[in-house]
Structure formats: C-alpha cells, structure tokens
C-alpha cells in the first residue's frame, strides 16, 4: 500500500499528524534504542561485557519499564510512550512479547504505513509522542 500526500503515519489509527499523541518517528526511536542499549552495555560491564548479558539487561530494562512508566528510559527521554491502540494499560505480557521480538531485530525493522514495527503490531501497541 502506498501512502498519498494527504495521509500521514498514524492517520488510519486516528492519531494526530504531529505533537502529543502522534506517531514516534524514526529519529526518536533510534535515539531511545541507543540510550537503552547503551545503558545495558554499561551495566553489563559488571559482568565482563558478555554479549548475552547485554541482551538480557536490555530485555530487563524493556520489560520492567514498559508497563510501569509507559516506556523505556530511552523512550521517556525522547518524549515517547508506549500505548495500546484502545488507550488502556499495556499489561504485563505485551512488553515481554514485544521485547522478545525486538531482540530478534527483524520484526522491529518491518514497518507498515503507520511506521509501526511488526513487534508493535503483534501485541497491539503503538509508540507515540507524549
């Protein structure tokens, strides 16, 4: 499906074009990922910089903060939050499944016209600006 000039990411979801509640764009997402992965990398130094420790710590950061703060520390620093499409709490299982798919990487780089990654589509969430 191609996107015409009259549409914008999030329009089909009923989200505004820009500002609070609009889709979190790629720059913010990449910045948030660097913050979260960087934190996991630094914390893993206590465990000898083991690559599996980095991924495990990254996963713990995601799973702990998504349901409690509505976003990871990186998301929050870049002015974004994770929300369900119906606006209710993301719960506990969605962050676990979303994080597992994010760690696999491929689902996170497959996007739809609303710039939602497959990892968000699977669990019914969207990363929006706060």
Can you walk me through this structure?
- This protein has helices at 26-44, 51-69, 73-77, 93-104, 106-109, 118-123, and strands at 80-84, 125-129.
- The chain contains six helices and two strands.
- Strands 1-2 form a two-stranded antiparallel ribbon.
- It has one domain.
- The longest helix has 19 residues, at 26-44.
- α1 (26-44) packs across α2.
- With 130 residues, it is mostly helical.
- It is elongated.
- This is RDD family protein.
- It is found in: Cell membrane.
- Its main location: membrane.
- Residues 51-123 form the RDD domain.
- Pfam families: RDD (PF06271).
Secondary-structure map:
Blueprint: H1 26-44, H2 51-69, H3 73-77, E1 80-84, H4 93-104, H5 106-109, H6 118-123, E2 125-129
Antiparallel strand pairs: 1-2
Helix pairs in contact: 1-2, 2-4
- Shape annotation: elongated
Say how many strands there are: 2
Mean pLDDT: 93
* Stretches with pLDDT under 50, minimum 5 residues: none
> What's the assembly state of these chains?
single chain
Helix content: 40-55%
Number of distinct helices: 6
Q: Strand count, sense and closure of the main sheet?
A: 2 strands, antiparallel
Which key phrases capture this entry?
two-stranded antiparallel sheet, 8% strand, 130 residues
What's a quick, concise take on this entry?
Keywords: Cell membrane, Membrane, Transmembrane, Transmembrane helix. 50% of the residues lie in helices and 8% in strands.
